[in-house]
Every structure is written in C-alpha cells, then in structure tokens.
C-alpha cells in the first residue's frame, strides 16, 4: 500500500493511510511478545523490555494519529524517543543473542537492521525485507531450530 499510495502529507492521515497506519500499529504490538521471548532466549530480559517500552509508546502514538486523522503536536519528540528505545533494545538483543550462542549470528545482527526497513525504508518497500526476516525466524521457530541448544545443553542431553 505504501508503494502504490502517495502520502497526503507529513502529519495528516486520510484514506488508505488509515489502513497502513493501523497495520503498523498491529505490527508494533505483535513484536512485543517476540522481543520479550528473544530476551528470554538470550538470558537477558532488559533489551526486550527496553524495546517493548518503545513499541508500546509508538503503538499508542500511531493509534492516536489514526483516530484523530493527524499527528498530535507532541508526536515528533515522543516518536523519536520511542524509536531510540526500540533501536537500543534491538541492538541489546542482537548482542545478547549472539553471545548466548542460542541464535544464529546473522539473524541476531540483522535484528536491529529490520527496524531501518520497517520505518525509514518502508515507503520504498522496506517492510517487505523486514517481513522476510520475520518469516525466516518464524520458520526456524516452527521447525524447532530456534532457540539453538548450547554446547552445555547438548552435553547433558
């Protein structure tokens, strides 16, 4: 939808933009249990909690904008702060997942990069790249490939 629909403006929401903004809100909320689970896999809860805080605030902001049909005056500074929380949390998850040995290094490193695709590059199809990442993660979870067992876990099995 973002590729085919020209945006009406910087702060207003009209027509199909309500659908894309609603989809972003659903995405933000859907990511919460995932980042919390990644924190559990990594053995460190703080990165998932930090990212969750940002996701919740940004979801609230997008909901307010969608309902009002325009961004509230406080949107820019709060959106910047929430995005910083998300990025810091995702970077923290990438580091802790890599160190834990329970997550493929390439997937861990790509985790914070997905946020670049979700927001700044979304207008040119970045959401598709982020979706591909999450499909790979979902597939690996479904196949039982994630989380990986550590060498200590393998020795006791």
Please specify the SSE layout and strand pairing:
Layout: H1 17-42, H2 46-68, H3 75-100, H4 105-118, H5 126-142, H6 151-156
Helix pairs in contact: 1-2, 1-3, 2-3, 3-4, 4-5
Which key features would you list for this structure?
single chain, mainly alpha, 157 residues
Summarize the structure in words.
The protein has 157 residues and is an all-alpha fold. It has helices at 17-42, 46-68, 75-100, 105-118, 126-142, 151-156. Helix 2 runs antiparallel to helix 3 (75-100), helix 3 packs antiparallel against helix 4 (105-118) and helix 4 (105-118) packs antiparallel against helix 5.
**What's the β-strand tally?**
0
Written as H for each helix and E for each strand, in order along the chain, the element string is HHHHHH
Cα Rg: 17 Å
Shape, per Cα inertia axes: globular
Mean pLDDT over all positions? 87
Structural class: mainly alpha
N-end to C-end Cα span = 48 Å
Strand coverage percent: under 5%
Biggest sheet statistics? none
Outline the low-pLDDT stretches. Answer: none
Which range best describes the helical content: under 10%, 10-25%, 25-40%, 40-55%, 55-70% or over 70%?
Answer: over 70%
Distinct helical segment count: 6
């Amino acid at each position: 939808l973002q590729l085919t629909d020209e945006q009406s403006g910087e702060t207003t929401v009209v027509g199909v933009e309500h659908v894309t903004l609603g989809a972003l809100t659903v995405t933000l909320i859907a990511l919460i249990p995932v980042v919390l689970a990644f924190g559990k896999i990594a053995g460190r809860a703080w990165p998932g909690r930090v990212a969750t805080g940002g996701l919740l605030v940004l979801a609230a902001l997008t909901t307010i904008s969608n309902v009002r049909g325009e961004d509230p005056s406080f949107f820019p500074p709060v959106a910047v702060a929430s995005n910083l929380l998300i990025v810091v949390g995702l970077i923290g998850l990438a580091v802790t997942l890599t160190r834990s040995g329970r997550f493929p290094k390439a997937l861990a490193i790509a985790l914070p990069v997905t946020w670049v695709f979700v927001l700044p590059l979304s207008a040119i199809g970045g959401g598709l790249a982020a979706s591909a990442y999450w499909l790979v993660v979902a597939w690996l979870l479904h196949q039982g490939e994630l989380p990986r067992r550590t060498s200590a876990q393998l020795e006791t099995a």
